[in-house]
UniProtKB/TrEMBL annotation:
The keyword Transmembrane helix applies. Keywords: Membrane, Transmembrane, Transmembrane helix. The chain crosses the membrane at residues 21-40, 46-63. It comes from the Bacteria. This is PH domain-containing protein.
Length: 146
């Protein structure tokens, strides 16, 4: 890991949240069940429930929900007063994203944080635990650097 300057101090550490992944999957399953509700006219409730679950699992596979979890399960994020470090186990050095380079924080996601960069790129921090608190701490840190 890289040595940090003496004036830099940690504000927050986190890893991907199993709870956020579970609730995201549950939300997708409930939406699928509501979508499949008209099928209840022709199917018995058990078959309808099984079909809904299978369709939800299929959607999770299509939309890479399981891959997002698998790819980020060992990634650690560290927020300091100067930068956001993304330490993925498959890289030698962590990705360093200076807080001064973050132009915006996305507002619509229920499970992830999307950061806007000056060149128009977006960085997504998937399945963040305690999303509101993490987003607030991130916003405070960014505001303090300006």
């Amino acid at each position: 890991m890289t040595a940090r300057p003496p004036e830099e101090h940690d504000l927050l550490h986190w890893r991907i949240s199993p709870r956020a992944f579970f609730w995201r999957c549950m939300a997708l399953a409930v939406l699928t069940m509501l979508f499949c509700l008209p099928l209840l006219i022709w199917l018995d409730p058990i078959t309808w429930l099984l079909a809904s679950v299978l369709i939800a699992v299929f959607y999770m596979w299509v939309f890479d929900e399981f891959q997002i979890w698998y790819r980020n399960r060992n990634t650690a994020w560290r927020l300091t007063n100067r930068a956001l470090y993304i330490n993925s186990p498959d890289t030698a050095e962590p990705l360093v994203l200076p807080l001064t380079d973050i132009r915006s924080i996305g507002k619509l996601s229920l499970w992830s944080i999307t950061l806007g960069l000056p060149d128009g790129q977006r960085v997504t921090l998937p399945l963040v635990p305690q999303l509101r608190e993490t987003k607030a701490r991130l916003a405070q840190a960014i505001e303090a650097t300006r």
